[in-house]
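To fix ideas, we give here one paired sequence and structure record:
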Amino acid sequence: MEHPQVVDPRHPLVERVRSLCLALPEAVEVQAWGRPTFRAAKPIFTYVSAHMERPFSIVVKTDPDEHRALVQDDRFYGVPYFDRNHWVGTDLDAAHTDWQLLAELIETSYRQVALKRQLVALDAQRPGAEGSL
């Protein structure tokens, strides 16, 4: 059964999320359930479109220690079928999205599922990281 497309994968908001996700080591995009998903090899770390009623949103896996604070912030919400596993959703809006915070949340989500070699590669990309130029 093919799922209907939830969001246009060429929309500028989706493109911006894509650029953040695909900057991470070995990250790939896979269309699944009618939406773009971003994966660290196989595990998903970001979904675009929390659900049909919120097509311009993303879902990320939080650090368990930060999860409670995020869900108490009005910008974030529990997503059906995900909340118990430390995932949160947030809506995307070109004028109001804090893209720096979003980039940090995407990286945190990636870190929750990435392999050790991917984490080493990510840390090497960061300024001042051991082994970076």
